[in-house]
Write a structure and sequence with these properties.
The complex is a heterodimer of chains A (661) and B (336).
Chain A (H helix, E strand, L loop, with lengths): L2 E14 L2 E14 L3 E5 L6 H8 L7 E10 L2 E2 L5 H7 L4 E4 L3 H4 L6 H11 L5 H14 L18 H13 L5 E5 L7 H18 L2 E6 L2 H7 L2 E6 L2 E7 H6 L4 H9 L39 H5 L5 E4 L2 E3 L32 E11 L11 E12 L4 E5 L6 H8 L7 E6 L2 E2 L5 H7 L3 E4 L13 H11 L5 H11 L16 H13 L5 E5 L7 H18 L2 E6 L2 H7 L2 E6 L2 E7 H6 L4 H9 L43 E5 L2 E4 L10
Parallel strand pairs in A: 3-8, 3-9, 6-7, 7-8, 15-20, 15-21, 18-19, 19-20
Antiparallel strand pairs in A: 1-2, 1-4, 4-5, 9-10, 10-12, 11-12, 13-14, 13-16, 16-17, 21-22, 22-24, 23-24
Helix pairs in contact in A: 4-5, 4-6, 6-7, 14-15, 16-17
Chain B lengths: L1 H28 L4 H11 L2 H10 L6 H13 L13 H36 L4 H15 L2 H15 L23 H7 L3 H38 L2 H8 L4 H30 L2 H6 L5 H10 L3 H29 L6
Helix pairs in contact in B: 1-14, 2-3, 5-6, 5-9, 5-11, 6-9, 7-9, 8-9, 9-11, 10-11, 11-14, 13-14
Classes of the chains: A alpha/beta (661), B mainly alpha (336).
Chain lengths: 661, 336
């Protein structure tokens, strides 16, 4: 097999004010014709910079300072500007992560899909437009003719990512580099896009380099994998082998830190403690040594080379380079969660919650449109329990969280908290309620005020509610979430994403609440950091007897974290059961498809078509029936809530009618 | 898009009505009784005479009715009579406006034609000599006081080098055509009076440069900042990855997005040029609205001031309407 792409000793340096940062430091790999290679690593590992270096898309202060990038034998790094523009988008194309910022908001979709077909001189404008429409159709864009007059903001996230793929494929490239193409998407849409990419690879023989932080995504598409850490490739090999038997301790930690749906549950997720090395002061020896649980004396003294350990397998590790293996992690048995006796009244009880939002008028005489965000949700949460709410974006789960914390007032229904009706609380009573109920938000960057020091952030709730010894409490809080109390004088930007999320948790804990409502608390974090933060939350629950309402779209995370799980679709809870029961015996077709859509190596998926219908209209009958693979005539009527087992209820006419693939 | 424009139009009309109401109410609540002022102390001591006068001028009518009369006068182009010039205010404004509009438009076009390319070049070649020039231009343009700049320009190019004519709109001995538009460049061109055209243009240059300086500075700075921002965007990287030429990437993908803040600022700047050229017009003896405003204010010529205020608010409303429509043309997300 001849290599299409041959990267040799690539070095890319960012010349920052603090000094040169070698973001990509001697990376080598090859991609053969029609091959699929996955590059995995945490943020800052250099995987995206590698991709952009290959395409020569980096701006100063980044500079490629060494190595070769050979594309079908031609050195990309030696190309003139003219040769480069001829090659980009024709020989090799790139697809980026964020389809909202990646598409130009002021140009029509069709123009963006067809302009470079014209620019590369392959077709005239009319031909390129026809080609563009066909291309969009083949990417599964419904009624692609509308692309001629539509702009990116009129397309959904999944549709935009299809457009991005169409842009990449427009000139039939032999190599497609996709940088986190599904990270911003819902799991069912992600499954559609991965399926599409696998199809491109099979049908057109397009070689694919897929960059992702998600091992599941890579494992479900790529035959080979390269694991990057601190600017270096630390392990390469066939994906299945690396996942089953990782030889580099970092790959080992990655493979085991991801909560998987098919792995047995552990009380704690094994992960890597600590942080990646400071790129300005790399360790002299192995870069992973400071965090490595298998390190030996040699690791800290000498930098290991990438050594061949088998056919197509190489690893950069002193411990395993002679063919040694790493042990499987010992799984501590899941400790039984401290549960309140069933006779005790629930901490939180919600009945028939409804929330609608009125949109602004579209024209002077147009009627107001109404978003039906939450459509009659009832739930309860015991003291010391974790209830997970899962669903795709737009299903109303965040609105539900805001209703329960009374950031929004419900249109109908009631909420009881600690036996008191809080549905219509206001003023002072609502303020007192905030002592008992706190939120942790998704974005650790946006939810901390950048102009306040960390101790000020933690002090604020204490002072507002008149705490007796606020300063001491701040120090105790920082200690409790695993941060050095002396760091209180720092500002949020001096912390990493995971540390900021710890600060958010500390802020929520400041007033000793009984309930924490966490809205996607780990979805913005790297896998490893995710495991650390989840472990912290589990530990705090045991120590403080907290209850969690845990909102997430990541099913595996919910499974690892929650006692009970409720699945939400279009503002309704469609299924609710204990976590163990729900993941073992999902009854609602939506739950089944959702579980099946989670990318995991070597498992076929049920691909749901389309996207959730608009929440602007109230649907008759079952809300899922338009996408349901096993819908039947009776589904036009409202489905009943059936209790299929103790504590396992389903909103469906035909539970268990869809089986997992 | 049509519904968006209709909505903007309706809101502009509402705003215009509000502006006229505010202006009317201010004239009503300003201290001082016009009847007393007209009649003098002795006649005003007789209530019957005062009442007769109030009835004659309609001052006994309820406030809203008087506003109605004021408004219908406005719609018929009746802005009252100037106390100082003894002519209808509208006639005065029509006479003085073209000189101002001509000057403002020329300097606005100059500022755009120089500022936008300079801003683009500065952003594309960041930290190069072009960028340095652009930064100096924006700093000097924004910070140099008008009177100082006007004085320097006159002293150097008129007094010392003699390259430009002195103050005024035309040569003192020239006879510019009277109409039909009042814009000398257009009027002279219409009758093919190229000598007059050149004379008018030569007189325009210095005040136009002085007036353009601040706008040029702002436009350059805004274009540069907006372009720098847009060039960082992912879609620019996507455009490059498609293999588009750098020129296309900059002009098609980045510039159109960068123009949105430039349009906002440009609209405001143009309205400012149209209504706020008092200092420049005074120094260059320019017979425009700015000087008329200055004279009317100095003479406490209330009808004239009200008329000018109305014209100024109408100008802002119109320019804002144009800016809103350009948003919709530039950015599809605004169209609804």
């Amino acid at each position: 097999m001849t290599a299409i792409l041959d990267v040799r000793d690539l070095v890319t340096v960012f010349h920052t004010d603090a000094g040169p940062v070698r973001a990509v430091d001697g990376v080598s790999f090859t991609v053969g014709a029609g091959e699929t290679l996955g590059i995995v690593g945490e943020s800052g590992s250099g995987k995206s910079v590698t991709a952009q270096s290959i395409m020569r898309l980096l701006d100063p202060p980044a500079r490629i300072e060494g190595g070769q990038v050979l594309f079908q034998g031609r050195d990309v790094l030696a190309m003139t500007t003219r040769e480069l523009t001829d090659w980009r988008g024709a020989g090799a194309a790139m697809v980026f992560q964020d389809s909202l910022t990646g598409l130009n908001p002021v140009l029509t979709i069709l123009r963006q899909v067809s302009e470079h077909v014209v620019a590369h001189g392959r077709m005239d404008i009319a031909g390129a437009r026809r080609h563009g429409i066909e291309l969009l159709r083949s990417m599964g864009v419904a009624s692609p003719e509308r692309a001629a007059t539509s702009f990116p903001h009129q397309f959904s996230g999944g549709m935009r990512q299809r457009v991005m793929l169409a842009i990449g494929m427009a000139n039939d490239p032999v190599l497609l580099i996709a940088d986190e193409p599904t990270t911003a998407l819902d799991v069912t849409v992600q499954a559609q896009i991965l399926d599409l990419m696998a199809g491109l690879n099979q049908k057109h023989g397009t070689a694919i380099v897929l960059i992702s932080h998600d091992l599941g995504v890579i494992g479900s598409l790529c035959r080979r994998i390269a694991v990057m850490y601190a600017g270096e490739v630390v392990e390469t090999g066939p994906t299945a082998e690396v996942l089953d038997d990782p030889r580099h301790p970092y790959a080992w930690a990655l493979a085991h830190a991801v909560p998987r749906l098919d792995a047995p549950l552990a009380a704690r997720l094994p992960g890597v403690e600590g942080m990646p090395p400071d790129p300005l002061a790399m360790p002299r020896g192995c870069r992973f040594a400071p965090r490595c649980r298998f390190r030996i004396a040699r690791c800290e003294a000498e930098h290991p080379p990438l050594a061949e350990i088998g056919p197509g397998r190489a690893v950069r590790c002193w411990v395993t380079m002679d063919g040694g293996r790493l042990p499987s992690p010992a799984l501590p048995a899941a400790a039984a969660a401290p549960r309140a006796a069933d006779t005790e009244p629930p901490l939180l009880e919600a009945e028939g919650l409804v929330k609608t939002f009125r949109l602004p008028r579209k024209g002077i005489f147009a009627p107001h449109e109404t978003v039906h965000a939450v459509n009659g949700v009832s739930l309860h949460l015991m003291r010391g329990e974790s209830l997970g709410i899962v669903g795709e974006s737009g299903c109303g789960k965040s609105t539900l969280a805001r209703l329960i914390t009374r950031l929004h007032a419900p249109d109908a229904g009631s909420i009881r908290f600690q036996g008191k009706d809080i549905t219509a609380l206001g003023g002072e009573a609502l303020r007192a309620l905030r002592l008992q109920m706190q939120m942790v938000f998704q974005d650790p960057y946006a939810s901390l005020n950048p102009r306040m020091r960390v101790d000020q952030i933690l002090l604020e709730p204490l002072l507002v509610h008149g705490h007796a010894k606020p300063q001491e409490r701040v120090a105790a809080l920082l200690d409790m979430v695993g941060l050095n109390p002396a760091w209180g004088t720092r500002f949020p930007h001096e912390f990493s994403g995971g540390q900021r999320q710890r600060i958010s948790i500390a802020r929520a804990l400041a007033l000793n609440p009984a309930l924490i409502v966490a809205d996607e608390p780990v979805s913005a974090l790297d896998v490893n950091v995710q495991a650390q933060v989840l472990n912290l939350m589990l530990e705090l629950r045991e120590r403080l007897g907290l209850s969690y309402l845990f909102i997430a779209h990541d099913l595996a995370v919910v499974r690892a974290f929650c006692d009970r799980v409720a699945v939400m679709y279009l503002g309704r809870l469609v299924e609710e059961a204990s976590a163990a029961e729900l993941f073992a015996r999902p009854a609602h077709p939506y739950t089944v498809s959702l579980l099946s859509a989670v990318p995991e190596p070597g498992r076929s998926r049920i691909i749901l078509h389309g996207e959730p219908p608009s929440s602007l209209r109230q649907l008759q009958g079952c809300a899922f029936r338009q996408r349901c693979p096993v819908a039947r005539p009776v589904c036009a009527e409202s489905p009943p809530l059936i209790e299929v087992a103790a504590g396992h209820s389903v909103l469906c006419h035909a539970p268990w009618s869809l089986q997992r693939a | 898009m049509p519904s968006y424009i209709a909505l903007r139009l309706v809101s502009a009309v509402v705003m215009a009505l509000l502006a006229s109401l505010v202006i009317f109410l201010i004239s009503h609540f300003v201290p001082g009784d016009p009847v007393l002022a007209q009649l003098g102390d002795i006649l005003a001591s007789d209530p019957a005479v005062v009442a007769e006068w109030r009835a004659k001028w309609g001052l006994d009518l309820p406030l809203w009715e008087r506003y109605g009369i004021f408004l219908s006068g406005l719609l018929h182009g009746d802005l009252g009579t100037s106390i100082a010039t003894r002519r209808p205010v509208l006639e005065d404004i029509v006479q003085f406006a073209p000189a101002t509009v001509e000057l403002a438009t020329i300097s606005f076009v100059m500022a755009l034609a120089l500022g936008i390319p300079l801003g683009i070049a500065a952003a594309v070649r960041r930290d190069s000599w072009v960028d340095a020039v652009a930064r100096v231009v924006s700093l000097v343009g924004v910070s140099a006081p008008t009177f100082w700049l006007a004085f320097i320009m006159l002293a150097v190019f008129y007094g010392w080098l003699g390259w430009a004519p002195g103050p005024g709109r035309v040569d003192p001995i020239a006879f510019p055509p009277e109409g039909p538009t009042g814009f000398l460049l257009i009027d002279t061109a219409l009758i093919a009076d190229w000598e007059g055209f050149a004379d008018a243009l030569a007189h325009l240059i210095l005040p136009a440069i002085v007036l353009a300086a601040a706008t040029l500075g702002l436009i350059t700075r805004t274009t540069r900042a907006a372009m720098l921002d847009c060039l960082q965007q992912d879609y620019v990287r996507v455009a490059r990855a498609k293999g588009l030429m750098e020129r296309v990437v900059i002009l098609r993908h980045a510039l159109r997005n960068a123009l949105v803040p430039v349009v906002t600022l440009g609209g405001l700047a143009y309205a400012n040029l149209l209504t706020g050229a008092v200092m420049t017009e005074t120094i260059f003896a320019w017979p425009g609205l700015g000087r008329y405003t200055f004279r009317s204010a100095a003479a406490l010529d209330f009808p004239a001031i009200m008329g000018i205020t109305l014209v100024v608010s109408a100008t802002y409303l119109l320019v804002n309407l144009l800016v809103d429509i350009s948003y919709a043309v530039l950015d599809p997300r605004v169209r609804r």
